[in-house]
Amino acid sequence: MSRQLWRSIAFIGVVVALTVSCGWAAAIYAAEVSADQVEGQWTNEAGTSLTFHEDHTFAAEHFDELPVASDCTNPSALSSGRWAFYSSAAADQINAADETATRGTVLSLIFSAGNCEVDVYLFGDDDDPSMCPTGDPDAGCPSDGYLHRNQTAAPALETAVTRPDGSGK
What we know:
- By secondary structure, this protein is α+β, with helices and mostly antiparallel strands.
- It contains two helices and eleven strands.
- Strands 2-3-4-5-8-9-10-11 form an eight-stranded antiparallel barrel. A two-stranded antiparallel ribbon has the order 1-7.
- A hairpin with a 4-residue loop joins strand 3 (49-52) and strand 4.
- The relative contact order is 0.17.
């Protein structure tokens, strides 16, 4: 075969590979987590913090410093709201945020102020996921933008037991 034909074949192969990989990056590295795993505080190295509650509310600190916040009308007002997983829809339906969904790979953060909704992609291991608030999961987050769940161990509490005779343990 001619050199020009090989170049054409190689070019087409590269274009196909790039096109396919861009759409699949989020799916390949996605971590499916439960609502229990989401609940709690998540932070990043830059100081952004998201605290998720069981009642599907959340509080945010310094969220306005993330690049995705610039897509919102008033980034400095992004301090709280509601969260939900995107539920799996039938083939002919669009995925929608659903507070009854108990697991997922993508969260929707709906902020109370500014009429702003942000998608948060869950990456990594199911046991130790990372969050990336972004409009484009293939673009990812800056290295200090990924949020990780705070794994604060509860201190062991020793409770004194008083017996009827007044003695301790």
